[in-house]
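Example (one chain per record):
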Amino acid sequence: MGVARPFLKWAGGKGQLLDKFRVMYPADFKVYIEPFVGGGAVLFDVMQRFNIEKAVIIDINTELINCYQCIKKDVAEVIRRLEQLEKEFNSLVQSEFYYMIRNRYNKNKINVEYDFEKAADFIFLNKTCFNGLYRVNSKGEFNVPFGKYKNPNICDRDNLLLVSKLLQRVEIIHGDYKQCREFIVNNAFVYFDPPYRPLTLSASFVSYSHYKFSDDEQKKLAALFYELNERGCRVMLSNSDPKNADPNDNFFDEIYKGFDIQRINAKRMINCQADKRGEVTEIIVRNYKK
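Predicted structure:
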């Protein structure tokens, strides 16, 4: 039996940090809640390492949640559409086909419970766009250019089947992270991976959705962290470490004062210039210790 892996490339994805996260998960829990699911690296890791009775994922990105829902509902239909896209991509002028699908993706809005065309296009664009970014403009239009990959794995059939099987045990919610309150039970494990606070002005060019996650939102999330702590949850949060850019920036140290804050190394692109890329520290906040 294979291991389900994220079916999307995702900027800021946690795949490279899982070895470090595994020693930081709480020891015993039955309910897992992830309000900013993104590419789902932690979701898939937790679901396959612990005996979870219930999992809930939430995200504000409509198209992303539609993708999860379609894979859960009818993965064979997603695979069928992806195989067709892959066939056409490999037989036509690839850049022209990419922009044709991108235009279709932006033109068609989700107005049904399960939009399989939109889901397949979402995965196709993710596999063929520049750096696997998900970026939208102020109108909410996906605007990442073609990635020029030689042989992108557009339809990973085996992994999609594994992902679909895993998602049968997951409740998938489109909405704001605050909706996690509705699913809280004592001893639940909640993992927050919000849009990272930019380290530099140029680092904020990637918009995950047309919603902005400002410092005020970071403070509201911290207030929810405190609330869930009072309700008996184990809570873990990751974010950028402002001290990479300014050693005197104590933003997160202040708003999460009293909780366990660790700094771990991660390889991130914090600048569009190659010589500014490399290893930085990120923060992990927990209200528990193993």
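Caption: The longest strand covers residues 260-268.
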